[in-house]
User: What shape does this take?
Amino acid sequence: MYEQSKAAYPAAGRRLRLGMVGGGRKALVGRWHAGGARLSGRWDIVAGALSSDPETAALSGQDWGLDAERSYSDFRDMAATEAARADGVDAVSICTPNHTHREIAEAFMAQGIDVICDKPVALTLADCDALEEARRASGVTFAVTYPYAFHPMVVQAREMIADGAVGAIRQVMIEYIQDGRTGAFDPSIKQLKWRLDPAKGGRTATTGDIGTHALHLLEFVTGERVARLRADFHVCGGEKPMEDTSFINLALANGAPGMMWLSQAAAGKSSGLTLRVFGQTGCLEWRQDCPERLQYSPLGAPQQVYTRGAGAGISPAAERMIRMPRGHGEALSDAWANLYVECAVAIEARRKGEALPEGLLNLPGLPEGRRGVAFFHAAADSNDGGGAWVEI
Assistant: This one.
């Protein structure tokens, strides 16, 4: 289907300097971001406001090997100070609770510092629009971290669908299920406390958290947008103030139906993200727990399994993300690294004033971030309306 490609990302002019806000000490998301940046080979982490608590910020800075003068407890101080340094950060990664994203991002954009932000990018569509206005005024790059789109075999699925491998899409099934919130709400757990507070986490819990990943993956791979949805929220685990499970019917823009199942109370399932796309002439299935395999089942023909590696039908877009030969395992950490490679390529090109080849990058930005916010609001509206169909 594809010729083996030598196409690659442009070589780095230098290692870019990254700062981080949030993510210190026990914060898992911060470790994902930092690990991806380091594994990419394109970034040095040189500064951080790793906690709003001065003592925790200082200890976290020591953990990360930051110079004491570049370990901050106030992101505003960090933005202003780093912008004034000749060796200041090129970009900042924001790994903080959802309700803080807008204020932090605006502070760094005002200083001309590029932004890499965790999802959901904001709490409201008005916040998203304000961020886009600030981005345009500053001219910076604004990336949103949807790492699952950076698995090579996810990109392979996208390329095969665009190439007509399954024909016109007729139905889609996506599920993202975990068991981390199977128990009852424990307010002593800091992360759960803000995630289950609508003022800080948003109108939804599980739906906005892992559901935004599921939506982005579905739309990225299929090239189709979800036009409408109807959602039912449930608490299937222990007692808690917001949903831990969602069942969502989807209607794609091309008229095809879909189903999304989200749960963080699926007891015994540590993490299960699965996408199935059915077209007129076949289907594709990808599972995040075996990310190097893509199952292709053409109608009336033997099932095929594509495995991550160079050549053998792998598209150029997927091939340039491959970090190891076949048989040597890659995982989510490599997808995070690929994401940070694309962040670096985009940011370095912007700073040099250079144009990149069309289609080189799949980097999500504020439009994709806004889609996630629109999605969880539509799902909440639907649930509040007794399961009514709502447009996104």
